[in-house]
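Task card 7
Instruction: Convert sequence to structure tokens.
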Amino acid sequence: MGACHFRNAEHRGRLGAMLLIIGILAADRAVKLLAAACMAPGESRPIVGELLQFTFSKNTGAAFGLGAAHTWLVILFNGILMAGVFYFLFFRCRSLWMMLSLAAVFGGGLGNLIDRICLGYVMDMFDLRGFAIFNVADIFVCIGCVLFCLSFAFSEKNHV
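Output:
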């Protein structure tokens, strides 16, 4: 019996999930720090003409600014959701694709939860004109949700 505890696919999947979460948190934090260091709130710079701008924004609410007047409720709801995702990811999930999808959701959700708790708002910077302003964490939450749905839909056993 060796010292390595990551022999089977499930353990390797969980290790990959942990590394993905760390990578998402690092990328999210780096871009947010860059935006805060280089720009004033509301300032914009073009990335792709008028379609996509780099705009430093402070979002005190949830998606699309919903619940902005009730930041503590958004924090509580986000915390409960992250606890649920963590539980399924590390204690119930057996599928590699489901683990990776939940890791993306968890990493992104945790990045935004950290902002809410530490700053009282989430820093957003990618401004898709006419749609929304979002950040790296939001991108991974969306990617993770899509991958989760696809993994669930095409799973042979149809369970996590």
